[in-house]
């Protein structure tokens, strides 16, 4: 069914001890859509992404992947995913790109991109290599296959991290502030790659402090405030006609 969202989160609650970080959040990632998450530092954006791909446990609410609800055992603080195979399937299909690129320093760029498809997904090495070279070329660093991460600029390292995420052939890409560790001129080269992926119709969730990126690339924008969705909608509405006072304050503080 083409209109089943890639993943869907309903009424998600997440606490760290006594600190409730997500207070009933909904998020739908329709296939081929880009959803941006914006909000102040500490509003829960990273936590929401990490809960979506089950890197973090959550205490209540539903998460479904391609229409299939995550199976849980236990409740509240004891709630855990029940099926390790389902967890692996979801995690490998929702590839994350982090602010700090997290490339392995002792591996070449090509080895970095090939590692997970070969070891986790156990795909054929020669096929993975061909795909990896293709993705590195696609993000504009096809000539950097044999160098080590330290030999690349931050923007090139982040593009390598995007190629690595793509090489998993995931159903969706999750970006957590992909440009915030970069100098402004390097930020643009990463933004162009993300814009290209949006134009290809990739399903993406992008946490970003870059309002230009959120406005230009997204189909839907969510403004989180202290663990709740304060406002959401089409980028033209959210940026052109923000309704909540908090969102107006946030937007004026970022421009
Ligand atoms: P954002 O990404 O929007 O800046 P986060 O999701 O990182 O926000 O954090 C939301 C809140 O959860 C913050 O108050 C943060 O301090 C807290 N938090 C995040 N990770 C942890 C953790 N591992 N343990 C305890 N508190 C955490
Ligand atoms: Mg964060």
Automatic annotation (TrEMBL):
Taxonomy, superkingdom: Bacteria
Keyword Nucleotide-binding: yes
Single GO molecular function: ATP hydrolysis activity
Keywords on record: ATP-binding, Nucleotide-binding, Transport
Domain ABC transporter span(s) in chain numbering: 7-251
Entry-linked InterPro entries: AAA+_ATPase, ABC_ATPase_HisP-typ, ABC_transporter-like_ATP-bd, ABC_transporter-like_CS, MetN_ABC_transporter-like, P-loop_NTPase
Cited PROSITE patterns: ABC_TRANSPORTER_1, ABC_TRANSPORTER_2
Family in the record: Belongs to the ABC transporter superfamily.
Full protein name: Amino acid ABC transporter ATP-binding protein, PAAT family
UniProt source species: Palleronia pelagia
């Amino acid at each position: 069914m083409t209109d089943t969202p890639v993943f869907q989160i309903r009424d998600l609650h997440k606490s760290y001890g006594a600190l409730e970080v997500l207070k009933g959040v909904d998020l739908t990632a329709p296939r081929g859509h880009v959803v941006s998450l914006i909000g102040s530092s500490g509003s829960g954006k990273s936590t929401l992404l990490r809960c979506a791909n089950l890197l973090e446990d959550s205490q209540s609410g539903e998460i479904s992947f391609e229409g299939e609800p995550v199976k849980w055992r236990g409740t509240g603080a004891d709630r855990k995913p029940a099926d390790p195979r389902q967890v692996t399937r979801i995690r490998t299909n929702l590839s994350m790109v982090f602010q700090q690129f997290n490339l392995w320093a002792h591996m070449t760029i090509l080895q970095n991109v090939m590692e997970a498809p070969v070891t986790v997904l156990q795909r054929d090495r020669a096929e993975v290599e061909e795909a990896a070279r293709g993705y590195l070329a696609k993000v504009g660093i096809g000539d950097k296959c044999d160098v080590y991460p330290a030999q690349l600029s931050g923007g090139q390292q982040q593009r390598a991290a995007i190629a690595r995420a793509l090489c998993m052939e995931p159903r969706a890409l999750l970006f957590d502030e992909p440009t915030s560790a970069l100098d402004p001129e390097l930020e643009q080269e990463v933004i162009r790659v993300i814009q290209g992926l949006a134009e290809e119709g990739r399903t993406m969730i992008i946490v970003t402090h870059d309002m230009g990126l959120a406005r230009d690339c997204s189909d839907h924008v969510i403004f989180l405030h202290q663990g709740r969705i304060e406002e959401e909608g089409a980028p033209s509405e959210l940026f052109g006609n923000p309704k909540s006072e908090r969102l107006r304050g946030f937007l004026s503080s970022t421009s």
